[in-house]
Amino acid sequence: MAKIELPREVGFGGLSVDRAIDSRRSEREFKDMPLSLLELSRLLHYAYGITEKREQLRAAPSAGALYPIEIYPVANNVEGLAQGIYRYFVADHSLALVREGDFRHQMRHHALGEEMMERASVVLVLSAVFERSAWRYRERAYRYILLEAGHISQNIYLVATALGLGTCAVGAFDDQGYNKIMGLDGKKESVIYLMPVGKI
Asked: 196 — phi, psi (to 5°)?
């Protein structure tokens, strides 16, 4: 699988944490403008990237440091990327193309007609690989996985705000429809959260 290396200039001296929290709002209206690859890189790094190299700890807390979440950026309008579904590889901060194509209409359809799914420059699709947590936490694993998705979502909100971008967490969608788009089986791995991001 060919990798696309993401820009490493992740620090950007954006808003302070308190200003980002005060300014954070759910944004559903996006301009028809592309995100830069650097903006996408920063979104992914501060959402779930490695922030402590020695122990490979990440930007979001994870029960047992098991990291059951995967992020699939669906590029609608990102400079330097063909339209399509990508997988984010945390270990080397890179992307790999999963499926090329324009999925905007399908994403809108399976998100109960939400227009922002078509208008977003990128949709960050969060999936859960259940066994990564279930082997240790058994019946509590699902709870921990959902908590982790929430941590990642808030990181995306705050870094998007600091970058002058908008996002809106989406939990209302057809699970089977999105799993089909992403090529997931819905059992071992399933879509659990959507974060459309764009210029506001």
From this structure: -70, 140
Rg (CA), the chain: 16
pLDDT tens digits for range 158-185: 999 999 999 999 999 999 999 999 999 9
Whole-structure pTM value: 0.95
| Structural domains of the chain, ranges and CATH numbers in brackets | 4-199 (3.40.109.10)
Across 76-185, where does the E strand assignment appear? 84-89, 94-100, 122-129, 165-167
Which residues are 94's β-sheet partners? 5, 89
DSSP structural state of residue 78: B
Read off the tokens for 117.
């799914």
Distance CA 164, CA 66 (A): 31
Q: What is the DSSP string of 71-89?
A: EEEEESSBTT--SEEEEEE
SS3 state of residue 31? coil
**Euclidean distance between the first and final Cα of the chain, in Å?**
34
11/25 Cα distance (integer angstroms):
22
